[in-house]
Specification:
Radius of gyration of chain A: 19 Å
Strand content of chain A: 25-35%
Order of helices and strands of chain A: EEHEEHEHHEEEEEEEEHE
Helix content of chain B: 10-25%
Structural class of chain B: alpha+beta
Oligomer: heterodimer
Shape of chain A: elongated
Strand order of the largest sheet of chain B: 21-14-15-18-17-20-13-22
Distance between the termini of chain B: 44 Å
Radius of gyration of chain B: 20 Å
Number of domains of chain A: 2
CATH class of the largest domain in chain A: Mainly Beta
Order of helices and strands of chain B: EEHEEEEEEEEEEEHEEEEEEEHEEHEHH
Largest interface: A-B, 45 and 47 residues
Strand order of the largest sheet of chain A: 5-12-9-10-7-6-13
CATH superfamily of the largest domain in chain A: Cyclophilin-like
Helix content of chain A: 10-25%
Distance between the termini of chain A: 27 Å
Largest sheet of chain A: 7 strands, mixed, barrel
Number of helices of chain B: 6
CATH topology of the largest domain in chain A: Cyclophilin
Shape of chain B: elongated
């Protein structure tokens, strides 16, 4: 792996860039460095923001010794071991198709598959959370089977409901709240990745894995009730 | 219990403090006060720490009353005026709002953002460690909402008594170009584009809000496309989408984004920039890290020094009297230049 680049982000931040593509190997390095920087906690550290391929580090320029921070990063990235070990894997129940996933049939048609085949392909993959961004708790998932990778909608929707299970290009995601989207809706989950009044506020973290479990619409009401009662409903399972 | 009651206010009037720290990795925008200096001044006047939550006014003012007792308050930022039952309050001076009186905060005259602070702050539960309202996250403020007429904001009765103070600030405002550090993706632009960016005048478009300020000016050409795989964003990043027209990202920005960022406004110049209105012409000047860090230190020291610049207000002094003694003349000058290029 080439030496990561340190990019200046004004006087109060820098970005350690491991590469320019979406690649699980790069993301594993980002998450490994994130863990190290947070545990070393250099003076003046404010917070870290891991993304697909880089780690942005924000600090107080009046406290942080920039040169010392760069030296620390040089040192720590030299023999950095990627963080492949995944702390948690989550099983997320999904009701696919119909009113729950209005684009399922269209996606099936685009790829010459039946809706059931799309469900089968989508729910048998293991997804990795590369990063959380765009909105609180929005998970950017890698691991979508190329057979159902579908370029984004020509006309984005102004609002899709919280819990929408969606795909866009080679990415997959779960809507944490009502949001605008140009992705395709395959299904709906009652699971809330983000709930400001719940402890924990965020269910998932970057580096976690997600698997989707198709469930029958008859279970929706019970699951939704449990979510409203503050239960995660997403289940932690063994990899 | 004493409540500060909202009688009327603009639609984006909301609580803001230093911002929400530690949740950007979960996609939560930091948000926070657009003008940290003005927030610090309002807070200093009523004896609060510099980053405590205050009411942020955006373009419009508001009216308030006190119920259940008297409140010690202060207003700062963007040439905002305040009056109690029609009697003007001298600028940068704390005042008592007696129960039954009405406080009118005028619209900001020389910028966009102004702050109303209450002694001891507000007794409202923070969300994710902050009271800063963020529209898209539905976080902060009053359970994820901005202020509206009828809201009652509980205040701390035990700290309302106290001598109202006035602040004499001697800040020398930078009036030159906005200082930036190039990067993180300046290599995505042609050398000509970088020159154009640093040599041209840009105009702040009407699309300027707490998320970002769209600028219009000469088209900045990308050297290798305008899509990057999303990476982290910080306050002051200047991203350039396919249109070639830069956007300066402000406090309600997203946490990651997929356009190349040509440069970053230095932290010390962000408050000044935030107060520039649509239509204002701006220029950028590239500086080295040393200058940016020195400016950040200077701002931090200036904020820390505010309590030492407070003096008691003599109640027999009228506004006219204060003005005639030139006690606040310098203050007014400093404030108005804060928001003008």
């Amino acid at each position: 792996m080439p030496t990561p680049k340190i990019l200046p982000c004004g006087d109060s931040a820098l970005t350690v860039e491991f590469g320019s593509t979406i690649d699980p190997a790069l993301n594993a390095m980002v998450l490994a460095l994130d863990e190290i920087v947070r545990s070393r906690a250099p003076a003046g550290l404010i917070e870290t923001v891991p993304t697909y391929r880089s780690l942005t580090i924000q600090f107080d320029p009046a406290v942080t010794d920039y040169d010392a921070l760069v030296r620390l990063l040089d040192e720590e990235t030299r023999d950095l071991a990627p963080r492949h070990a995944v702390g948690r894997r989550w099983r997320v129940p999904v009701v696919y198709g119909g009113a729950y996933g209005s684009d399922l049939e269209e996606v099936a048609e685009i790829h010459g598959l039946t809706p059931n085949q799309v469900i089968e392909i989508h729910s048998s993959a293991v997804y990795r959370i590369y990063m959380i961004g765009f909105l609180p708790g929005f998970t950017y998932l890698g691991g979508l089977d190329k057979r159902i990778a579908t370029s984004r909608r020509v006309h984005p929707r102004a609002k899709i409901p919280a819990g929408t299970i969606m795909i866009g290009g080679e990415q997959a995601g779960i809507a944490p709240m009502d949001m605008p989207s140009g992705w395709h809706n395959l299904g709906l989950t009652p699971v809330r990745p983000y709930a400001p009044e719940r402890d924990p506020v965020f269910l998932f973290a970057a580096g976690d894995e997600i698997v989707f479990e198709p469930v029958d619409a008859s279970r929706w009401e019970a699951m939704e009730k449990a979510v409203l009662a503050g239960e995660p409903v997403a289940e932690e399972v063994r990899p | 219990m004493i409540d500060l009651v909202v009688k009327s206010c603009g639609p984006m009037t909301a609580l803001q403090d230093r911002g929400r720290i530690g949740y950007q990795g979960f996609g939560v925008s930091p948000s926070g006060a657009m003008d940290r200096r003005a927030l610090a001044m309002a807070n200093a006047l009523v004896g609060n720490t510099p980053d405590m939550a205050a009411i942020e006014f955006v373009n419009l003012g508001g009216a308030f009353t006190a119920e259940g007792g008297d409140l010690r308050l202060a207003v700062a930022g963007a040439g905002t005026s305040a009056s109690i039952d029609g009697t003007p309050v001298p600028p940068l001076t704390a005042f008592m709002l007696r129960e039954g009186q009405t406080l009118d905060v005028g619209h900001p005259r020389t910028g966009t953002f102004a702050y109303l602070a209450v002694a001891g702050g507000l007794i409202i539960e923070p969300q994710l460690g902050s009271l800063s309202f963020h529209l898209r996250s539905r976080l902060g403020g009053l359970k994820g909402a901005p202020l509206q007429a009828g809201n009652r904001l509980p205040c701390r009765p035990e700290v309302q008594a106290g001598e109202p103070m006035q602040l004499t600030v001697d800040i020398v405002e930078e009036t030159g170009p906005l200082r930036v550090m190039l990067g993180p993706q300046d290599d995505y632009f042609t050398p000509d584009s970088i020159r154009l960016f640093l040599d041209s005048e840009f105009t702040i478009s009407p699309q300027a809000d707490r998320m970002g300020f769209q600028l219009t000016g000469p088209k900045l050409e990308h050297a290798k496309g305008f899509n990057i795989v999303s990476d982290g964003i910080v306050d002051g990043h200047i991203q350039v989408p396919g249109s070639g027209q830069p956007i300066v990202l402000m406090r309600d920005r997203q946490t990651a984004g997929g356009y190349p960022k040509i440069a970053t406004v230095i932290s010390a110049d962000l408050a000044r920039f935030a107060q520039m209105r649509s239509g204002t012409q701006v220029r950028f000047k590239a500086v080295e890290r040393d200058e940016a860090v020195a400016a950040a230190r200077q701002l931090k020291d200036w904020i820390a020094s505010l309590p030492s610049k407070l003096t008691p207000v003599r109640f027999d002094l009228t506004t006219e009297h204060l003005l005639s003694r030139n006690l606040i003349g310098g203050t007014v000058d400093a404030l108005s230049s804060a928001s003008h290029e």
